[in-house]
Design goal:
This protein is α/β, with parallel strands linked by helices. It has six helices and 26 strands. The chain has a six-stranded mixed sheet, with no helix packed on it. It has a six-stranded mixed sheet with strand order 14-11-15-19-18-16, with helices on both faces. Strands 20-23-22-24-26 form a five-stranded mixed beta barrel. Helix 1 packs across helix 6 and helix 3 runs parallel beside helix 6.
Length: 403
């Protein structure tokens, strides 16, 4: 068995980011990975404008209130001012309105009284250019704006719209084939016969792949038949960048995956990892670049393997910026945790914030790799390090957010 950190390093060394790109519109760019750095030839703000509803004035005219100014114009947002503000004059202006020539300051309407076309200034601004958003204050043309490799969310979409970039270059989404192995498995739609197990992994992994921004390709259940399994794996590596298979990677009489991978030309990089759950992890790479993850069939083990090892692989493959490795949070442990294993051990529960402090509470019920039931409604896994078999209540524990 190799260590978890060794496995993580080996996996990331096997992965090369996608280079293919495509163009999507603004509505379809959310969660996509930006393929090229973005600059703009526009200033932002585009022009001097008002940050408040109020009056545009010359600062030198309003330093000693109360003062009376003559209102000579009204400037709603979207209109170009037609008059220059001269000494003793003011313009009614609304939020976002262009600052008229001659004016350099905005007086909030709360600090004024209007009497017809006369304006009484009740309180002087603290400094020139008060409540004026200057042209180019936030961004000047040609400067770096959005970096290649970032994930586009609502804020970035707003920026792209603001600078009139409506066709967005993004990385191709990785394709991940998913297959389940085992004669015991049946689909959820089939009648459950004695001795059979409903295949939840196909659907759990589909959801996981979607959550990582990749395209899942479900290939269904493959029986414990070497020829059928070889055919299905051959099909998978032709259509996908990554293959996820569950089951068939242990040392049982019906575990054929590793031998088939070798027969198909793959180089085995990992066979087992010192982790619980998830020890029987097979990772291999095919000459054409496809990376194969053979993960355990137990449903908790399958998801823990995905969160710990497959997630960073998809992140790097997608072309995301570093860091690709999972981001750990220190939390206060709310109960004593013990491990009887000599492997790095993961337990699942809920991570919450109490009075500004992250706290981890273990899920109730059995912490067993086959107990999918108490995995529901959890949002984190916590690690009991190798060689430290007890973490007492109140100690810090490292946690990984899973959703």
């Amino acid at each position: 068995m190799i260590s978890v950190n060794q496995a993580e390093t080996i996996i990331l060394d096997l992965i090369q980011p996608v280079t293919d790109t495509e163009t999507v519109d603004l509505h379809n760019a959310v969660t996509r990975i930006l393929a090229t750095a973005i600059k703009s030839d526009l200033d932002f703000p585009y022009w001097d404008n008002s940050a408040m509803d109020g009056y545009a004035v010359r600062y030198e005219d309003v330093t000693n209130p109360p003062l009376n100014l003559t209102i000579v114009a009204e400037i709603p947002a979207g209109k170009v001012p037609q008059k220059t503000i001269s000494q003793g004059e003011a313009a009614r202006i609304y939020t976002g309105g262009m600052l008229p020539p001659g004016a350099d300051t905005i007086i909030m309407q709360e600090y004024t009284q209007r009497q017809g076309d006369r304006l009484v200034i009740l309180k002087a601004p603290k400094a020139p250019q008060a409540f004026v958003r200057k042209k180019g204050e936030y961004y000047q043309p040609g400067n770096p704006l959005l970096k290649e490799g970032i994930t586009l969310s609502a804020a970035e979409i707003a920026v792209l719209a603001t600078i009139q970039v409506i066709d967005i270059p993004v990385k191709r989404r990785p394709k991940v084939a998913i297959l389940s192995t085992g004669d015991e498995l049946v689909n959820p739609s089939q009648p459950l016969q004695p001795g059979k197990i409903i295949d939840s992994n196909q659907y759990a992994l589909y959801a996981f792949v979607l959550s990582q921004g990749a395209i899942p390709i479900p290939l269904g259940i493959v029986p414990d038949n070497p020829e059928e399994l070889r055919d299905k794996i051959s099909q998978a590596i032709e259509v996908a960048d990554i293959v996820l298979s569950t089951g068939g990677v242990s040392v049982g009489s019906y575990d054929y995956v590793e031998q088939i991978l070798k027969e198909l030309g793959a180089k085995i990089a990992i066979s087992s990892v010192a982790v619980k759950p998830g020890k029987p992890l097979t990772v291999a790479k095919f000459p054409q670049g496809c990376v194969y993850f053979g993960i355990p069939g137990n449903p908790v083990s399958a998801l823990v393997s995905c969160w710990r090892f497959v997630q960073p692989a998809i992140a790097k493959l997608s072309g995301k910026q570093q860091p690709w490795i999972p981001q750990w949070l220190a939390a206060e442990n709310l109960q004593t945790l013990k491990s009887t294993s000599d492997r790095e051990t993961y337990v699942w529960g809920r991570l919450n914030i109490h009075q500004g402090v992250y706290q981890f509470k273990l899920a109730s019920g059995s912490q067993n790799s086959g107990n999918l039931i108490n995995l529901a409604q959890t949002n984190a896994i916590a690690v009991i390090p190798r060689g430290n078999n007890t973490i007492v209540e109140g100690d810090k524990i490292m946690t990984l957010i899973t959703k």
